[in-house]
User: What shape does this take?
Amino acid sequence: APTMQEVGAAFARSNNFLVMGRGYQLAACKEGALKLKEAANVHSEGIHLAELKHGPLALVDEEMPVVVLCTREWHVDPEASDATTYPKVKSSLQQVLARHGRPVVIMNETDAEIASQVFRTVVVPRTIDCLQAVLNVIPLQLLAYHIGVARGCDVDRRASTA
Assistant: This one.
């Protein structure tokens, strides 16, 4: 499996990023996009996957870096399930792949079907639904850091946001 440093180096020349997820993961997407702006000085957008067909999908091609949070949700309530969220994320991922996107997928466990189709996978531990975004944001922060380093940015002193 590639390291985040290798993934960052692969995207060092990219100037635009899409970070996508559903539900609780939207907050992690927004945070990841912000870190890409701050640490790597690139344009990035955190997007809810339900909005994919309303514009962002038109931007996806083999050159557009896409990060998809495709983690399963584990609910405290045993009656609840992620039967509606995870399949929708996988469906959106298929739309990205149909546009020749090369997504980096952050997931809980290796899904052989997904892993064989995407550019890179990053596995994070699984936790309850409302805390999963906390774990998912860590690889996003590392990705932003390594892209910034590869681009020659001073990642310890972010660009002015005032």
